[in-house]
Input
Amino acid sequence: MADRILILYGSYRSDRQGIRLVDYLMRAFAERGAVPELIDAKAVGLPMLDRMYKEYPTGEAPPALEELATKIRAADAFVFVTGEYNWGQQPGLKNLTDHFLEEWFWRPAGIASYSAGRLAGAHASVAWHGTLTEMGMVVISSSLTVGGIGRALDETGTPTGDGGAALAKAFPRFADDLAWWAEAAREQRARTAPPY
Output
């Protein structure tokens, strides 16, 4: 069974460098036989959090929330592609994530961070780890970090230079880790209902 992977991206900048990493991941996961789908926070365009999806009466959530809840529940795994803003998370992606809670439960998540500088979004990656764990996901131990993203990936998301080579070398382990946990979680959910 092909893993259904949601790739979540949250930059709202007009010159989005992280989309290069998204493009790379979409292709790389598809080449492995997975079914990746991009969830672009900017394109979804949710308002700042006022009411979570679960706080709407059944059938009364805005269509964008309803559609996204369905996709999250159907996914086998998630990859959060995150830039770093002042040592923290991108607000667009965090806002999208916070609209849901139980929908995320009992599935693995991977973190792919990036930045224009050499730290490769490491601070954002650390911040996301605690957030995703609190939201009921199993965060895999492998992570992807891309520093100097404008030099590591070209406009089509093709790896270039030393940074691109490092990404291409790290991706198989990251993908294997995510696939292992996706299969384990899928089989366990089929065997027994989650405890809550």
About this structure: The longest strand covers residues 138-146. The radius of gyration is 16 Å.
